[in-house]
Each structure stands twice: as C-alpha cells, then as structure tokens.
Amino acid sequence: MRPASIRLCGLHLDRRNGPSNTKIIHRHPSMAPDETPQSPTDESRLVRERYEKGERLSEAGVELYAKRFTWTDHAADIHERRDILLANQALVTMAGRVMVVRSFGKAGFLKLRDQSGDLQVYVKKDVTDAAGFELFKKGLDAGDIVGVKGPMFITKHGELTVQVRELRLLTKSMRPVPEKWHGLRDVEQRYRQRYVDLFANPQVRNVFFLRSRIIAFIRHLLDERGYIEVETPMMQAIYGGATAKPFVTRHNALDMSLYLRIAPELFLKRLLVGGFERVYEINRNFRNEGLSTRHNPEFTMLELYTAGWDYTDTMALTEEMIREAAREAIERTEIEFQGTAVDLTAPFRRVRIVDAVAEAIGLDLKEHRLAWGLPSREELATALGPEALERDDVQKVIKSNDTADEALFALFEALVEPTLVQPTFAIDFPKSLCPLAKSAPREPATAERFELFIAGLELANAYSELNDPAEQLARFEQQVARRRAGDEEAMSEIDHDYIRALEYGMPPASGLGIGIDRLVMLLTNSPSIRDVILFPLMRAER
C-alpha cells in the first residue's frame, strides 16, 4: 500500500487523486510550507518530469527500484578479455549508470558507466527482451542504473559493444545528470555533490582508487617490517601531540568536556612504555583552523613510532616509503606536480634550517652566526646583519613580539619553504618550539626534528622522542605558559598521566607523521586538498 503523499528533496507529490491528478510542487528550502513558486526553475521542471515518468512506469508494472541484481562482469575486464569473449560468443552480465541514450526507432545505443569504466551496449527490437526494449523506448533516461546481459560484437565503427538480450531497470534516476559538470565555476558544486562528481568524472573516481592503493601499500610495507596497527582515542580529555586549536565537544553522561584529537602521539608513545616496539595508526585528526588548498579541519595522517631509532633512521624509512608508494600507485618515481617536475629517485636532500635561512638572506654559509637559542632579538639582529634586516621580505615576516627562535623560524617558513621543490629534509629545529622532541647532544638549543618538503608541500614531520619525564614536564609547563600568554595553539593543561607513563620508562624512539591527504595530492597531481578528500568540509549551502 502506497502512502497518500511523500516528500523528497523539496518535492511534494500528492497521490491521493491518482496519477492523472498528481500534484507536484517544487519548493525552495527557504520557502514557507504554504508558499508556491510562480515559475519553477528548469531543474525543478526536469525533476518533476522524471517523477511523472516514474509514475507511468510504475503503473505499467515496471519496478523502479529493483530488490536484487547480480552481475559478473565489469567494463574494464570486458575490454581486457575482448578477444576471448568475441571468439566464444560468451554472454556478459554487467550493471552501470546510463550516461548517453541514442535511439534510432527500432534500435539504439546506450553508454553504460560502472566503477571500472565505460562500455557501449546495443538495444534492438526482436533481439532484446520485449520488456527491456519497451523500457528503452519509453522510460530510459541518462542517469538511470540498469543491468544488461548479452554477447559481444564489434560495430562498423570498431567499438566493442554488448548485444543486449536482457535489459532491466535497477534504479530510476529522478534527477537529471548535469550536462556541464566540468570547469572552475562548478568546483564548489562538485565538492558539495561528490556523489555526482564521482560518476560524472571518471578521473575524479580514479584519484580515490589511487588513494586507497597508497594507503593499502603503506599498511603492507609497515606490516612486513613488524609494525602493529593500533587504534587510539579520538575524543580526549587533554589534547596534545601537536600545536593546534582543537574542536571541543561534550560528554553528557560523564558531564565533562572533551576534545577531538589533534594528534594521536601521546597515546601511541604510551604503547612504547607498555612494551610495543613498533606501532602505527592511520588516523583522522581534527584541527580547528582555516580552510585552504592545503588545509582541511578533518584530515588523515599516518603516525608511527619505532623503539631504538632516532630521527636519522626515520628519515631513511620516510624516503623509502614515499618512493615505493609512488612506484606502487602510479608506477613511476619521476612525477609532475602542477607543472613542476619532481624526482623521487635520487636521495633526498638534507639541509639544516639555519643554513637554509642564511643562504636565503645572502649570508656566507662558512661564516654565518645563526643558531637556535639566541638570547635576544638584538643578538639575532647582529647575526643577520643590518642589510638583511632592512629587506622588505624580512621586515614583513618578523613580528615585534617574536623571540629570536620564532623570528628565525618565521624566516624559514616565508623565504625557504616555497623554494623546496625537490624532496628535501629540513632538519634541526629550535628546541623552544618542539616540546616533545629530544635535544641534539652537542647543541642543547636544537631539537632532533625534520620536516619533509616536496614541491613546496610539507608532507612529513618527525623527531627523536623526548623520554626524560622531568624535562618533558618542564616543556609542558612552558607550553601552558604560552597558552596563558595568548597562544591559542599551545597546550591548555599538562597531561600528568603521560608524565607518569614516562616515569615508568620509555625506550629511545623516533616518531613520524605523514599527511596522507597531501601525499595523495602529490602523487595524483591534485591542486587542492579538497580534490583528494571524498567529502571535504563546506560552508552551509544557501
């Protein structure tokens, strides 16, 4: 028994008076319930016509939404096995979305698209089953999902085609496929309606197939090397492991505020204390920051920890992982990213941050005095030299309240990072800005940390892990002090349980974080992080 009326996607269909009096009213979401538009848009008219056609098909006994259909073949496999299929006149069974309908009276062609690709099918009276041919002539539209069965043949134009013997409607599409889905003006619509983007643009779907392959390969590589995949909390009472502003939520039963994790680091290192030697997590992190072509508030990261290693060991693993992921996913290590050639084959360059800044501002690398932990801005000014300080690009970067370390690192971010096109490990960071990293033995003000840059993208971050509980507590206290001084990304409170864990003893170790989204951007030549996230965060639709 059908309901008297249904409401779907802004459409109200009143069926109480039967199909001949079907009343269809298209409403904009902002309209009042009793308001009727004076002139429906083209889109609403086309949707209305689809519903009306669906009514007629349903009354003629056509099932608009099939319960079940099993297919054994896909378009790509059929193309690959074409010679065998043609020689044996074997029947294929496939399902796909109708992308093109061409009718010539008693015959016609459809282009079907499944997840593997496109395939042409030929529908002909007296060859196709009667119900299927009737469906083709009177009820089939672009966007419908159908199942077909039949042998293969080659058309006079040389195209591999299914000679349809059986045609069945699996799902009636009530909304027409957009004719012009490509182009910059449609970018936001594509992100917002990713479900259309995926079937309308095969190259978009291929990006996400490659994303899956990249993640699967990383898992395989780490599993083979004895790493154990784990899961750690996504809701945390105390956030940590990075400097970022968190999202806040509320647990009603426990009557406590919680944070969506900004990083899993502190929990993964607790596992090292517990006796795990190699652990990793491919996780979702959440940071309450702005949107850009390289930032989404919700993102995927690989984070791993290896007992007994320092950051030099992790550099070797990182280089191997990225190079082999490229070979696995795109079958080459010489790639192009947004018009720039990048070679992943050669050993990745390693450069100290202070040396890179000195070179960028024109200091003699043999004589420069730049170093982390300079006692004051005046000392930094002396090290930079008066000519460097007068440069506009330097003055724009350094803020009046920056410490010497902050000013020097800001110069690196502004003047050096954009120039790091070929794979480069930027190594040796200021200890004052790395609360979880171990200091270099001969340079107490320097942290053993690296970031990997390729084509201007920051892809990885790693360091030798600090495992001295007393020093870690002092670093946490410094972070809390920074927060109280106005730094919203610094830690708001000390994780005393993590300090307690370190007091039981954590082995020397090195950790690594790789941004999966940015890695996929690089290997698929995608200009925006939204291109590699299936459902990126969007502003509310008006």
Task: Describe this structure as you would to a colleague.
This protein is an alpha+beta fold. Among the domains are: 5-59, no CATH class; 75-171, Nucleic acid-binding proteins (OB fold (Dihydrolipoamide Acetyltransferase, E2P), Beta Barrel); 202-348 and 492-532, BirA Bifunctional Protein, domain 2 (2-Layer Sandwich), CATH 3.30.930. Helix content is 33%, strand content 26%. The chain is built from 17 helices and 24 strands. The strands form five sheets. Strands 11, 15, 16, 19, 20, 21, 22, 23 and 24 form a nine-stranded mixed sheet that branches. A seven-stranded mixed sheet has the order 8-9-6-5-4-7-10. A three-stranded antiparallel sheet has the order 1-2-3, covered by helices on one side. Mean pLDDT is 89; it is low at 1-40.
Briefly summarize what is shown:
The protein is of the alpha+beta class and 542 residues long. The chain is elongated and about 90 Å long.
